[in-house]
Amino acid sequence: MPSEDRDRDWQLGQVHRKVDAMERMRGVTRYTDDLKLPGMLHAKILRSPHAHARIKAIDLAPALAIPGVFAAVTGQDFKIPYGIIPWTQDENALAVDKVCHVGDGVVAVAAIDEDTANAACKAIRVEYEVLRAFFDPEEALAVRDREGTINPYSRKGNLSKHVDLEFGEVDKELAAAELVVEGEYFFEGTTHAAIEPHCALAHVETNGILTVWSSTQVSHYLHRELAKVLEIPPHRIRVIQPPLGGAFGGKSEPFDLEFCVARLAIKTGRPVKLLYTREEVFYAHRGRHPMKMKYRTGFSADGKIKAVDAKTIIDGGAYSSFGLVTTYYSGQLLCAPYNFGSYRFDSTRAYTNKPACGPKRGHGSVQPRFAMEIQLDKAAVLLGIDPIELRRRNDIGADTRTVNEFHVGSNGFRECLERVETASRWKERRPTLPYGRGLGVAGSTYISGTNYPIYPNDMPQAGVQICLDRSGRARVFSGANDIGQGSNTMLAVIVSEELGLPLDDIRVLSADTDLCPVDLGAYSSRITLMVGNACLAAAQKLRARVCESVAKRWQVPKNRVVLAGRMAIDREDPERHVDSAQAFQWAEADHGLLGEVGSYNTPKDRHGEYRGGTIGASPAYSFTAHLAEVEVDPETGIVEVKTIWVAHDCGKALSRRIVEGQIEGSTYMGFGEALMEEHKVDAGHRGAHAGPSLLDYRIPTFLDTPEIAAMIVEAPDANGPYGAKEAGEGPLHSSIPAIANAIYDAVGIRLDRLPFTPQRVLAAIRERQRREAAGELPPHKSSVDETRKIA
Amino acid sequence: MAAFGELSHGIAGWGRLHPWRCSGNPCRDMSHLLLSMTVNGEPVQVAAPAHHTLLEVLRYKLDLIGTKQGCDKGDCGACTVQIDGVPQLACLTLAVHAEGRAVTTVEGLGQQAGGCHPLQDAFDRWNAAQCGFCTPGILMSAEALLRRNRGQTLTRAQVCEALAGNLCRCTGYTKIIDAVLDAASVEEARNAE
Fold first, then answer.
1. Using one digit for the tens of pLDDT, what is the confidence trace for A512-556?
2. Is the same domain home to B6 and B88?
3. Beta-sheet pairing, A437-447 with A621-632
4. CATH number of the domain at A363-446+619-784, please?
């Protein structure tokens, strides 16, 4: 959609060098742990070895006696609770009276260096009274007494959140359905494993302002919570997010380290830094919730979904984190890309004595999507309908309302299906693949930000300020957190497109609460749509001024002036042009200093009129289709994913390769969750993490990762900047069930529990073979199996 | 190296700032060693506690922050540097092990190539760095691969094998593989001239 004064987009959809990548390549970018201030101390946190215990006494004296130890803080220094969701403020920076999981913070120490801080932690004596710990959500929910209540702020025992919503008449539709598929699924939960561990540095500046540098993806929420817990007015606190080494949702709320360094910096008068060890990152977690899901799906004979009935138990860990939202999302985000005749979901989140779960890329909806897409695949087999065709028949389409009353605008799902179908040569190849080799498909949708902010307010969700100066440069001030996804570059591309400047002439200054307007942060895939729209609004105002001043000088109508290629050009006489600096100088002479703000707020008419009907409502939805090809070794149970084709409708790709990178990275992350990742604690070892290292918690390497063929589909949305929607989370979802469905196609086994380890695959193959031998099942792909037997 | 000249007087500097350091710390042995090595082509002398790793010395003593700490136990590859041209994990290498040897970090990569190494340029063009935290380590592994493989056509499989010790969580590796293959062909074309 080129603006009226441009013939075509000159930057949109191109390939760009990112505005801040080369410095990372050179190794000169300063991430949080690279910051060093004069007199800086290092802090460490002493953590609980128990999953559930009352703290009876803490003796700090031996630690404080060590030379080089400056200060220590405990839960008594942080009695005010906090929490990312205003209604569930149920954690303290350090444990106040009791610890709720192994790894809960108990004491933080600041010392001259890390070694001394570690020695101080060893010297501290903590006396615990060990309490009964709960590692199973259903066991935890069964307990009602105060003694067995894990979270100290919980008012409903170990029930963290319960949501039960029904749309249409599910029981009636299920009774009338020609096919009802029932399935039970289990998603163990996974973690983010960003390569940069969490780090924070705090210092009280000479003007008395507490400055906190943190590897956070939500500077604004951190700012608010720091003010609350430390009882310092927000305007006396400055939060800066330095360049960040990956997050994926794992840095989207405040953590103990930020409060600890702040308090220790105030206490000692020195800068204090704390870097998590990798082990601490695993215990900080906030990753994908384990979910136990029971699905009943009713179909008509022609494959139309008549009813979906879902019951989900969610294992939340010790704190709420985003859990209230997760519980809603586990049901609310499932109602596209397919039309459900009727829908009911009943989701219950429990507290357990484990590291708290929270939002990981595809928050709340990756697990139900796994269940749903396998349900569809099972139905396709039972009804004898091609799995892609079955999905096409249920396509909800564009400009419509979901069964749970969300308004869907643009929708490129049908094209996504076609793209993966064609690229994989599904129709020709699928019937011919031998036993052990298979193709599987799945689809999904995701939000581009949420219509309602985390804390209720009527202010804009995003704001951007842009200044132009006489050197021909633009400065963009944005509170948005670039976490590696490229949001700084996205903003530069929009400014570049509107003001005709090359990216080199644009400085994006982001995520510094003293310099930038408030932005809510990098979560729920909100930045491109929301911050992009705010940026576009500001840039368009500036463009109008610049064009007006140039037109005045040339004595031509304003719409003849085009800004592109670092110039202002006369559209009808391209020989006439001036460089951008001259154009800006004319505009500054006419209008004074050139600065504009733009803000964006969400439409408020796109949700359902019921309690919880706003949660999951978004200005625009992205759509994805994945198609995976696998090879399964029936002797070992090893699954090799050969290729994943993925088509994603991002509305409009503002920067092509960055969008591809998001699609590929998401698909890869889903692949890892499908085959190897499992974040769990070991109940047999008192709730210790099963393997808090990047060796034990396996994530895919270069050698593991399949070929990923990413395809961009563009169904522009009226609510997105130039039609753009999200690309960073949606393309994870269907990666997992596409692999599950491909495994079924390959060897005829249903894997309803993640991950698909060789042991589980092998056990399922053996079980199928047993049933085939008993005559309960026909041989899978028997006709093409002969060649393998001969070989 | 001039930039490191002041830092090579590390003991005196620390002593002035933190007197307890000189008076002895009871919790551990703080005896320092004076190490000599070549870092990015320049001779460096640096004092460091005997138990410190090369990663700690590079980051804390020499301020070469391009080498990253992702796990500190040899699992992620973010701290990959080259010792005598061979990729090594700085977090698993005691600093004393680098005594008398040539250490190259990511900061030395472009320097040797006179500004910007073809790998850095290719990574930039391909958007092969998202958050960029694993990138320095990957560049050091990739540079060694290109050098080992000079004069031969590089395959995708070779790239994956050479970089298998470097974890990246953002990209799905696709763009990194593209960038390395691209850089290899750029180098090949340059060598053919």
1. 999 999 999 999 999 999 999 999 999 999 999 999 999 999 999
2. yes
3. antiparallel
4. 3.30.365.10
Assess whether B104 and B133 both reside in one domain.
no
- Concatenate the DSSP letters of all residues of A203-222 into one string: EE-TTS-EEEEE--S-HHHH
List Cβ neighbours of A515 (8 Å cut-off, separation of 6 or more). A477, A509
**Nearest CB to B133; choose among A28, A31, A666:** A31
Question: From the candidates A503, A702, A711, A735, which should be mutated to test the interface with B, based on the most B CB atoms within 10 A?
Answer: A702
pTM of this prediction? 0.95
Give me the residue from B63, B139, B163 closest to A25, CB to CB.
Answer: B139
CA distances from A415 to A388, A536, A713 (A): 12, 28, 7
Choosing from B108, B127, B158, the residue where a domain stops is B108
Contact at CB, A694 and B131, closer than 8 angstroms: no
Compute the nearest-CA separation of A27 from chain B (Å): 4
Which candidate in A26, A42, A113, A116 is best for mutational testing of the B interface (most B CBs within 10 A)?
A26
> Do B123 and B162 sit in the same domain of this protein?
yes
Of B69, B70, B172, the CB nearest to A667: B172
User: CA-CA distance, A698 to A715, in Å (whole number)?
Assistant: 36
Look at B169 and A195 and tell me if their CB atoms are within 8 Å. Answer: yes
| Distance separating alpha carbons of residues B88 and B79, to the nearest angstrom | 8
| Cα distances (angstroms) measured from residue B29 to each of A122, A123, A740, B52 | 16, 17, 54, 12
pLDDT digits (tens, 9 = 90+) for A673-720: 999 999 999 999 999 999 999 999 999 999 999 999 999 999 999 999
Asked whether B94 and B54 are in contact (CB, 8 A), the reply is: yes
Cross-chain Cβ contact B169/A708 below 8 Å: no
- Please give the structure tokens belonging to residue A727: 């690309």
Kindly state the tokens that stand for A12: 């949109």
H helices of A239-355, where?
256-268, 278-284, 323-332
How close A125 comes to chain B (CA, Å)? 16
Give residue B56's identity as a one-letter amino acid code: E
d(CA B23, CA A398): 74
CA distances from B25 to A40, A500, B48 (A): 18, 61, 15
The angle formed by the CA atoms of residues A624, A630 and A634, to the nearest 5 degrees, is 145
Per the CATH hierarchy, to which homologous superfamily does domain A32-131+197-244+251-284 belong? Aldehyde oxidase/xanthine dehydrogenase, a/b hammerhead (3.90.1170.50)
Chain B nearest C-alpha distance from A662 (Å): 7
3-state secondary structure of A430: helix
Domains: count for chain B: 2
Note the ipTM here: 0.96
Query: Is there a cis peptide before residue A755, judged by omega within 30 degrees of 0?
Result: yes
